[in-house]
Every structure is written in structure tokens, then in C-alpha cells.
Amino acid sequence: MKLDDLVKTASNKENFTELKHYVDFCLEFLDFIGTPGAIQAVIVSRNETHYRFIQFKNANFSISRPLNSNLLYSSKVAKANLQQFLKVLDAVKTSDTSANREMVNRSVYTMQQSIGAALDALPAGQSNTARKINGDLFERFIRLLLVRVGIECTSGVVKVPVKVDDEQEFTMSYQHDLIINSGELVKIIGSVKTSSKDRLDKIFVDKFLLAKLTGKDIPHVAIFLNDVQRKGKTPDKYGISATFLPGHFKGYTVKLNPLDGVYYFDIRPNMLTEKILKDHIRTFDHFLFKELWGLIKREAVVAKVEPNEEGAS
């Protein structure tokens, strides 16, 4: 594929309805950027040098989001590992090894960033559209992944019955990216975003409100791709900055309620070292291989779930 073909494919969400579609697109994108002369340049971040930016050879010489070279597969490695990634999902309960955990994290990161980077080549005036498409496809990706491992999930609206003196008076509706359920039993509520920027507040408050309305502590989790963005006005000055707000996270965790799991694919160094952060934030493999299975056994709430039209896809 040429760059225009990749951008056109990534811009249409109907091209990503199965995990195989994410795999196929990723391989095409990596092949493209690995072809001699296909891109203008690879720019190394000034402050954290394992982050790189791709400069495309389009009319505007567009520059991609920061890509973590410690996580992003090369074309050769992706061809060997992405099919194995699908096999690991099919046997997730018996394939918990450090190698498979790393494969899952790097595979998802590489596939999703391939889409995001391709969308970065859209004209500047379409940047908001690109962000929306990328976010929607990441949410869908995580749901497809969970369906693959045998989890019933969707996105949509949870209608929570509110009782007064044991009588239902009304319902309250909440829109969620990820609803893990079994029939009318809602077992886990999730927020799935490419970044936590401007999005932390809602999931903490949602957990608090649902507990108050139902009297039950339903697990709430957050799944983020990364929390870095490009800084600098010219390519020779480009670096990365963090979008995560540690003070807000700690404040909500200590003074409101802790979430039941916060997971990243590209985890920031301070999340591994700072008190409170390191106790509540982990890489995604911890959720998939271990913690998910304990959370779905916890207390559930009876509520009507109205899936979005696309359902689990």
C-alpha cells in the first residue's frame, strides 16, 4: 500500500471489525515505513530518545505521534509475532509467561499506533476527526480482544435502577466504553481511551456514583494506550511530554475511591516508582492474564444494558 491507501483504510472504521483486520493493517503499515525512500525521515525525541516521530512524504510533510521504539515492532518481528499473539489470546488461561505477556503488550501497542500514525498523515484540518476515529478503534480493539478470550462485553448504556424504600423510583443512564456483563448482571465497568488526558475524573466519579446508587462496589477499570504527546515547534526541537496528571490521580484515589485497576501499554516511569501510582497502575498484561478473572467473580449489579449499534465489534 501507498501512504494514501493506508490513510484511506485507517479513516474508515468499517475496515476494522475483526482482530485480523488490525493485524493485516499493521503489517501493511510497517512494511510501508520500512521501505527505503517511503518516508521523509525518522526524528528522534530530544528528551526521551527511545521515542521517534515519522515524517511522511505527503504534501504537508506530516509528522506522526511519538512512537516508543522499545514497544513498536519492526515489520520482520511483527510478521513473526502477530499471528502468535492471536494464538496466545485463544489459550490465555494457560499461556501466562513473561514472553507472552510482553508479546500481548507490544502487539496491541504496535497495531493501535500503526492506525494512529497513519491517521496523523491526514490534513491538519482533520486532526479532530483523526483523534475520534483512533479512539473509537482502540475501544473496539480492546472489546474484540476480550471477546476473543471468552468475555461477554459491549459498549453502551447501563440503566441503573434507583430504589427508595425498596421500591424502584427511576433509572439513571450511564454511557460506558466497556461493559463486561452476563445477561443483566453487570460485572465490570471500563473506560478505554488512548490517553487519560481530560478523562480521569469521569471514571472515578462513575465508580462513586454507582456504589451510592446500588449499594454495591462494582469493579471499575481504566485501560489507556499511553500518556505522551509531542512537544516542540520544529522537528529539530521535538521531544515528548507526559499528559498524565499524578496529583489528580492520587487525590481521587485517596479521597474519593480507588479504581479496581488502571492499565497501560506504554507505562510511564513514575507509575513504576511513585507511591500510590505503583500500587494502582500496571501494564495491560496484568489485567488480561490475571486480574480480569478475579474481577468478574466479584459482586455484580442487576441493570439493563443497551449496547451501541456495533455491540462488541
Please tell me about this protein's structure.
The model has no long low-confidence stretch (mean pLDDT 94). The protein has 313 residues and is an alpha+beta fold. It folds into two domains: 3-148, no CATH class; 153-307, no CATH class. The strands form three sheets. Strands 4, 5, 6, 7, 10, 11, 12 and 13 form an eight-stranded mixed beta sheet that branches. A three-stranded antiparallel beta sheet has the order 1-2-3, with no helix packed on it. It contains ten helices and 13 strands.
Q: Total strand count, please? A: 13
Strand content: 15-25%
Number of spatially distinct domains: 2
- Shape assignment: globular
What gap, in angstroms, lies between the N and C termini?
25 Å
Element order: H for helix, E for strand: HHEEEHHHEEEHEEEHEHHEHEE
Largest sheet: 8 strands, mixed
Binned, the helix content reads: 40-55%
Tell me, rounded to a whole number, the average pLDDT.
94
Radius of gyration: 20 Å
Secondary-structure-derived class? alpha+beta
Number of helices: 10
**Residue runs with pLDDT of under 50 for 5 or more positions:** none
